[in-house]
TrEMBL record, chain A:
Enzyme class: ligase
Similarity section: Belongs to the phenylalanyl-tRNA synthetase beta subunit family. Type 1 subfamily.
Residue intervals of the FDX-ACB domain: 732-825
Pfam family, one: B3_4
One Gene Ontology molecular-function label: phenylalanine-tRNA ligase activity
Species whose genome carries this gene: Nocardioides currus
Gene Ontology cellular-component annotations: phenylalanine-tRNA ligase complex
Residue ranges annotated for the B5 domain, each copy included: 409-484
PROSITE patterns for the chain: B5 (PS51483), FDX_ACB (PS51447), TRBD (PS50886)
Cofactor(s) for this UniProt protein: Mg(2+)
Principal place of residence: cytoplasm
Chain ranges of the TRNA-binding domain: 42-158
Official protein name in the record: Phenylalanine--tRNA ligase beta subunit
TrEMBL record, chain B:
InterPro entries named among the record's database cross-references: aa-tRNA-synth_II, aa-tRNA-synth_II/BPL/LPL, Phe-tRNA-synth_IIc_asu, Phe-tRNA_ligase_II_N, Phe_tRNA_ligase_alpha1_bac, Phenylalanyl-tRNA_Synthase, tRNA-bd_arm
Assembly, per entry: Tetramer of two alpha and two beta subunits.
Organism expressing this protein natively: Nocardioides currus
Pfam families in UniProt: Phe_tRNA-synt_N, tRNA-synt_2d
The keyword Kinase is assigned to this record: no
Alphabetized HAMAP family for the sequence: Phe_tRNA_synth_alpha1
Binding site for Mg(2+): E273
Keyword terms: Aminoacyl-tRNA synthetase, ATP-binding, Cytoplasm, Ligase, Magnesium, Metal-binding, Nucleotide-binding, Protein biosynthesis
Protein name as catalogued: Phenylalanine--tRNA ligase alpha subunit
Amino acid sequence: MKAPLSWIREYVDLPADVTLSALTDRLTMLGLKLEAVTNPADAVTGPLVVGRVLTLEKEPQKNGKTINWCTVDVGDANGTGEPQGIVCGAHNFVEGDLVVVCLPGAVLPGDFEISARKTYGHLSAGMICSAAELGLGTDHDGIIVLPADAGAPGDDAFDVLGMDDPVIEFEINPDRAYALSLRGIAREAALGFDLPFTDPAARDTPAANADGHPVVVDDAAGCPVFVARSVSGFDPTATTPGWMATRLEQAGMRPVSLAVDVTNYVMLELGRPIHGYDREKLSGAVRVRRAAAGEKLTTLDGVVRTLSAEDLVVTDDSGIIGLGGVMGGETTEISETTTSILVEAAHWDAVSMFRTGKRHRLTSEAGKRNERGVDPEITEAAADRVVELLVELGGATADAGVTVVGTPPARVSITIPVDLPARISGIDISAETTLAHLRAVGCEVAIDGDTLTAVAPSWRPDLTDPYDLVEEVVRIVGYDQVPSVLPPAPAGRGRSEAQRLRRRVGTTLAGAGLVETISYPFVGDADWDRLGLAEGDERRTALRVVNPLNNEEPFLATTLLPGLLKALARNVGRGTTDVALFETSLVFEPTGAKAPLLGVDRRPSDEEWASIEKAVPRQPMHLAIALTGHAEDAGWWGAGRLASWSDAIGTVRALADELGVELTVTATTREPWHPGRCAELRIGERVIGHAGELHPKVCKAYAVPARTAVAEIDLDALLEHATTVVTGPEFSSFPVAKEDVALVVDADVPAAAVEAALREGAGELLESIALFDVFTGEQVGEGKKSLAYALRFRAPDRTLKEGEASAAREAAVAMAAERTGAVQR
Amino acid sequence: MSGPNTDYDPVEVTPLKAEEVERMRDEAVAAIAAAADLEQLKQVRLDHAGDRSPLALANREIGALPPQARKEAGARVGQARGAVTKALGERTSVLEDEHEQRMLVEERVDVTLPTKRRRAGARHPITTFSERLSDVFLAMGWEVAEGPWVEAEWLNFDALNMGPDHPARTMQDTFWLEPADAALVLRTHTSPVQARTMLSQQPPIYVVCPGRVYRTDEVDATHSPVFHQIEGLVVDEGITMAHLKGTLDHMTTALFGEGITTRFRPSYFPFTEPSAEMDMVCFVCRGVDSDACRTCRGEGWIELGGCGVVNPRVLTACGIDPEVYSGIAFGFGIDRMLMFRHNVTDLRDVFEGDVRFASAFGTEI
């Protein structure tokens, strides 16, 4: 909302010591936040003076233009008192006119410096200004011709033009609709400085009579008050006076025509949207009703709108003539020939306005006010003000008929304990202060012992609840008066176990050299295809966004790999070729259930709550990693090591070790992994994820390097099994006995199976086992491989006897032979 | 080698004569002294102290002596061997020292060579900064509450006093999920976590809810459809705006230093009443000569977010008696605070996954 300071001053007499910044600071602290101040005077540097055109010679030019060679009396402003010679291209003035002259040295908006210069064969010493050149609007043709009594040559034109009029732009919160008017803003200014307020809506209005234009309201809930007034003999050629056009422009509205401008002006002044009809185009009674679904209306913006049964419409005998409170229709629009005008000032149901505006994607200055709540008690005053201006400025005659249908809704009364504002704000606020401030905002207040009852003023439909009154009192006392006190929180338990574990996962992975990323969850069919997911793959069943930012990516991720691979490709594309990434994020599993929309007057019942919980999709937290390039860099120490499938599996294994979870790894096939290099990761029988090398096709599809390795696991599942309370270990201080063994098995026997057999066969004395070599070649035979293990044996309570370790080793080998066909080399 | 001497008594055995033993000893000691390095000394040790050395052989002859002579000869040979062993030990020590000295010189390396074989990883600064923020509240005894990202419409809006026709509902551009009547959204704020907390426990409630939120903003340097918020909620008996101010002052002081406190300006949010915008003192210019300050753009204050007293309607919808309890709540953007605290100029860096971004922050902020 843009409010010219001069307009505010019409309703509140701000003393000189209230500076602009004092005013805006105070209003900001009252809840009308200062957005910006603009002042045309700030953009112009003088000298800018009144001049009288003494002579004017029209001089046609070769380029087809005609210029005026003028001499202009600028008094003593030019230091000589001699007439100033100026070339001017505009033609809307004659000798003797008072004009605005900027003399050499002046600077106009856009850093346009005025100097004496030779042009069209003359020395032009200055410029005769148009409004646009002074930054005073854009819609004026020609230069400014001042009224004959505007001043004398040489007078400072800043004052004459009223250029020094700051326009304050406020950000108005949705609850303070009353401040979408000069009436509301001035009222706050008066309240802020404890000054008297002149209410522009306070005016005597003629009583309703039976002579007015007939109005029928079928839906009193949607339109509680409808006031119709009319004027005749309006001069359609009458123009909007400059002061009104300026104010409309200052407030951000474009002047259109006098009749329209008057309605807009009154809307800005009082906050009450007004609609004007060409009365001659109306046939029969004006009626307000709900539309029938499917009815059509062409609104003033030229759009044909199909209406819903909830839309409030205004009709006459010809049909629908307007979308009530939101926008009028074309058929009864005021035109350049209109002489008879019906003025509608109606109070509309705010919710209905909001829904209609939303449904038809219509935002208008009228709609904005009507949907937030307008003072229902000023309909007659607003209509009367419009009639007054049409009579005064448009030569019209006010018709005697006054139609008033309906009555304004009753004012809301709210009862609160007198000390509630003090109790809620923590400020020491006396009962007297509370009463005074509530009265200052316009409430009628009655006190009864420890409680008070406040009747909210008609312009404050936002005041409905006890705490609304608290805010009113506290904002006037001042939010800066709120003391700073720490609340007495009970002793806490710190982070939850899951939160602690997740932090540990992050530090473990970062410690292992991986960098965390955060990706958008939006994916599309193309991602499923890039990953090579089969038609029936469960990951293709995803939640779909109704209104995605990108229609190609309407789904919510069921796997983190698309986002991670895109980040990987981005890094590689930017020249970082050795990359290790991880992401922990929720993935989304559709439930197909619909969430209930419950009431808010009480807590949901257990059943209702259960239905909400059931409808909210399962969203497990996943962990994904992606690796490419060097795991260990090459350098003076030798060749580096490239990350591979084993790093992907190893990273998850190391994480499981860190969390004390026993992970089982078996070979499997699953998209998007390389079919021969994909590990299934299990805890017991539960599959928690997969790791390995990315399928070459997937690498190509995501433009990531070949051999990129990835893993994705259900992190929640891993954390569920984490050992949170570690039992202190007991370990032997007796000597260790080491035994190595090399076993030949068929090439397709998993190393994990051999190790498991060795472990079982070795028995309790086995402390650890490590595979230190895998060998294939002629020596071990076609289709075979040799696995070399280092075994360490130790007893908890004694030194092993000669032969004990080797016997255990033999037992281990025997078990491996039995289980896996292993032969000792 | 001679056999046991049983034929005559006493017998003279040449190698055991005193002068012979002394000669052998002296030769050994001289050879030891002459050994130039550990390798030579090894040979000297074999020659003069080994099993086949003259003194060792002489020692074997002792048995051939008549019993009365054995003692003296044994002592003589023993002393000689002892001297040799001692000389060997001393020489070994000297030569080892010399060897070590040489090694230490020869083994000199260029310690300025690069040493980084593995790159350091990093957690995302949003993660670590969320933790740091949470730490401030955890230290006050609060707890950290979390909730799902796809949320029931009722929890995201209705329970927070944003009914279907509430103007504020359109202020937040919401991602809705199909089917259109599923009443599910990507949460537009972390406030549904507050509602969940109140629905799951009675006061006293002291929680912060950091987390990811979604709005239909196109990506640019300061907007992202995905971003992060942290909200705080206190519901207890006798809670006032003063507690809100105290909490926020403590937080900004903990994060930005002494003197960095907050101020309130009246505002509007459906879930709080009274509502306020909160600003913090600019931690760069501290409100002094702010005109040139790039962080606060001359304001002296930095906008943080919104806060207020929990609207009793919200308490009611969440099953808490507003006649007994009152609450305070606040919320602000983690990304935005990260940006101004760490001079991050482009929000896209947060979500593009370029490792150079997160790596700059390491594992803690």
